[in-house]
Amino acid sequence: MTPAELSADGALVLFSGGQDSTACLAWALDRYDRVETVGFDYGQRHIVEMDARQAVRAAMIDRFPAWAGRLGEDHVLDIRGFGAVAQSALTADREIEMTARGLPSTFVPGRNLVFLTYAAALADRRGLAALVGGMCETDFSGYPDCRRDTLDALQTALNLGMDRTFRIETPLMWLTKAQTWALARRLGGETLVDITIADTHTCYRGDRGELQPWGHGCGDCPACDLRAAGYAEWDAAGRPDLAA
Ligand code: ZN
Band of the pLDDT at 82, cuts 50, 70, 90? Predict the structure, then answer.
């Protein structure tokens, strides 16, 4: 049965198993009584992302008893049809490069619009009011569907089109990569930092590689570069907690 009203204390986190969505998951677990996760199978080259999702969820349950009772179901939605239409370096064997329109080849047109529309349809059925995603304008200037303006417009469209009162929450929107580490530390201390390093996966190449101070990855793709640089900046600053 579809609930008549969305539960204001319920959240659905768009969860890829990466550093950013892990910080979002912790942010949601800190705030909401009922938290579920959703991932998308759009034909990623890397099954390693799907493994990271389960490892992070298991670690959260194991190491944060207060969060274990709040963390509910995980959902994986098959959107491979979309992946086939919107081929990019993330879904096909193409090099990561800048394209003629000034966007990286990792840009998947409309991806966040599709993710959030599917997430809203699922949240409608699950009765969850908050849709939480790791979109960020600060470090990803190339991605137009990460902009808060885009998400405000989409939130309006979803609420009109589904006759609901969803809120698209983007806790990382104005944070730097260094501040995302600081947010993790504020929410879950060095324990959450350890989980982020050991279990999350961000590398575009799907390479777990050797364990670096900032985690696993190839160490020279754009995603690894950002993650490593953010970690180094945060560590050099004395591993602060993000100010509340
Ligand atoms: Zn990499």
Answer: confident
Residue whose C-alpha is closest to residue 186's, from 241, 244, 243:
241
Neighbours of ion ligand 1 (CB under 5 A): 203, 205, 217-218, 221, 224
Is 0.90 surpassed by the pTM of this model?
A: yes
Domain count, the chain: 1
Six token digits for residue 223:
């995603």
With CA atoms as reference, report the closest residue to 177 among 236, 119, 131.
236
Domain of residue 94: give its range: 8-200
Place of tokens 């086939």: 84
Q: pLDDT tens digits, residue range 33-64?
A: 999 999 998 776 668 888 999 999 999 999 99
Tell how far the Cα of 25 is from the centroid of ligand 1, in angstroms.
22
